[in-house]
Amino acid sequence: MRLFARRHTPLIGLDISSSAVKLLELSRDGEHYRVQSFGATGLPANAVTEKQITDPEVVGRVVAGLVKQSGTRTRDAAIAVAGSSVITKVIQMPASLQDEEMEQQIRFEADQYIPYPVEEVNLDFQVLGPNPKDTHLADVLLAACRSDTIEMRQAALEIAGLKAHVVDVEAYALETACSLLAGQMPNQGRDCIVAIVDMGATTTLVNIMNDMDTVYMRDQLFGGVQLTEEIMRRYGMSMDEAGRSKKTGRLPESYAEEVVPAFMEDLVQQIDRSLQFFFSSSGQHETVDQILLSGGCANLPDVDHVVERELGIPTAIAQPFHDMTLAPRINSARLKSEGPAMVIACGLALRAFD
Fold first, then answer.
1. Is residue 1 part of a domain?
2. Which tens digits make up the pLDDT trace of 94-114?
3. Looking at the chain, which terminus has fewer C-beta neighbours within 10 angstroms, N or C?
4. Helices marked H in 49-201 — which ranges?
5. Please, which residues bridge with residue 326 across strands?
6. In the predicted model, what is the mean pLDDT of the chain?
7. How many separate domains does the chain show?
8. How far is residue 156 from each of residues 53, 109, 135, 264, 267, measured CA to CA in Å?
9. Residue 85 reports pLDDT greater than 60
10. Does 7 map to a domain?
11. Which domain holds residue 228?
């Protein structure tokens, strides 16, 4: 299985996170996209732990139900693995090599770049372009993921009657989806720096774009599960009860007055910490022009206003479906509500048009 496998259409984007599964299928007419199929549903606790599938049988049944609910007939999927599961490295190779020759040489020299036996990993590469210091060399992005991580995802998909044709990396799927968010950015993202902050259940991904090119990526172990756990502790609920109550908002007044503000304070600190890491690593930037929030936590009331007020940076909620048309069976209100949490699924679905 190639991590950057080439197009196989039609294709559904399937984002399997620690707490939910999101499904999206797009079609395209010229430059305009149309939502053909869509769905999102929660996962039982412990079916996925720290982005690793631990119970493919359970995950497979959930995915099968979501496929049926969405109405899609497509059985080929693009999935993603967490960045923490993948080793990436930019290496230099002779620019004259063909892809087949490059692949042979990379596999022969893999032990120089990867701390695992080559037979235990899935390897892939992508040529980034000429090396700026030596035009006889090409910069090549090498990606490697332990085979068992991918095999667990494949097993879940097979139970659901699907086949994985593309295995991407979450951070790269987020980067791909940024093309759908350009309309929300200052000057369509050109000549400006935008931080995309995808806040999931257990992990927050930060992708900083300069002129629509990624210049910084960071994963943080922080997400909505901290809020869920606080609801459990404070109100004596189980994990499932807390998750449902958080989504419906059926909680005591103290939730909005005390619990949410404390969580948002932590969230702002996490975003600020990532920005400070970026500023110190770049050595040439001291601010960003905009923050776009995505992921499940982006649905917290007024979270964009809180982040903007505390950090002094214009902030908005990502709306990837803003300029898309919808198939008749799509529930537009639900799609709009789920939109911020569907950004990685969007990036995966876009792989159908590589």
1. no
2. 999 998 898 888 888 888 888
3. C
4. 56-70, 99-108, 147-159, 170-181
5. 35
6. 91
7. 3
8. 8, 32, 44, 34, 32
9. yes
10. no
11. 193-317
